[in-house]
Amino acid sequence: MTVFSYHLANTTVGKTLRTLTSPPRASHVHGLVHAECMASMTLGSSIVSPSRMKLRELAVFAKWKDNDALDKFLAETPTGKILSEGWHVRLAFMRRWGHVDEFDGLPESVGEQNPDAPVVAVTIARMKLLQVPRFIRWGKPVERLVRDHPGITLATAAIRLPRTVSTFSVWKTQREMIEMVHGTSSIPKPDRHAVAMKERNRKDFHHQFTTLRFKPLSEHGAWKGQADIVPALEPQS
């Protein structure tokens, strides 16, 4: 069964840069379909802040042919061994909005979706470089909205220069995530995401963009001392 995974791990600047410039590829890693390797970012931080791009924190989002391929990668490859010391969640695909070439072929939706179940959301954007100032202007309020939302248990972002930006968020329920998207959450300034999407529709920031929604299957390791990030899942070794 196809499985996705999202990984966060502490490492050195050198190892992060080597992974970004020479990422795992399907042609060299058995069972890997595609991997996005990025440096972690702090949502809502200043553009000039050192926390904006954390070269000592590696973020990897990947699609695998099955769990065995992921297990072998973590146990036997240099990048996998780095990631095995951190935290990751394994995911089953549920829903797609938008499109990026590397995850081509995913349907818009699969199966029934429980609005009260936990959900994981991943966005991937290939930026238009001349639109980056606009993206920052409209995106920063959304970053703070997601970061501070009471329905979130973990929210982070990641970047691979020059064009790729990604977000990752774990939600207590799918209902709370959808309310955030549509601007109906019971929080201050709930429409920040909806307003930014209207601006994106007026003039796109991206060459390609997708939001992917997943059912969390299992959680492994710990991130910054926390090992129970996904609600209703037992942490696994």
Structure overview:
There is one protein chain. This protein is of the alpha+beta class and 237 residues long. The chain has a single domain, classed as Alpha-Beta Plaits, CATH 3.30.70. It is built from 6 helices and 9 strands. The protein has helices at 13-21, 67-76, 78-84, 132-148, 174-182, 192-202, and strands at residues 3-10, 32-41, 54-64, 87-99, 119-127, 152-160, 164-171, 206-221, 235-236. An 8-stranded antiparallel β-barrel has the order 1-3-2-6-7-5-8-4, surrounded by 5 helices. The longest helix is centred in the middle third of the chain and has 17 residues, at 132-148. It is globular.
Q: Secondary structure elements and their pairing?
A:
Layout: E1 3-10, H1 13-21, E2 32-41, E3 54-64, H2 67-76, H3 78-84, E4 87-99, E5 119-127, H4 132-148, E6 152-160, E7 164-171, H5 174-182, H6 192-202, E8 206-221, E9 235-236
Parallel strand pairs: 8-9
Antiparallel strand pairs: 1-3, 1-4, 2-3, 2-6, 4-8, 5-7, 5-8, 6-7
Helix pairs in contact: 2-3, 4-6
Largest sheet data = 8 strands, antiparallel, barrel
Low-confidence stretches: none
| Integer average pLDDT | 91
Can you tell me the CATH class?
Answer: Alpha Beta
Specify the structural class: alpha+beta
Give the CA-CA distance, first to last residue: 21 Å
The CATH topology is given as Alpha-Beta Plaits
Percent strand: 35-45%
Q: Write out the strand line-up for the largest beta sheet, numbering strands in chain order.
A: 1-3-2-6-7-5-8-4
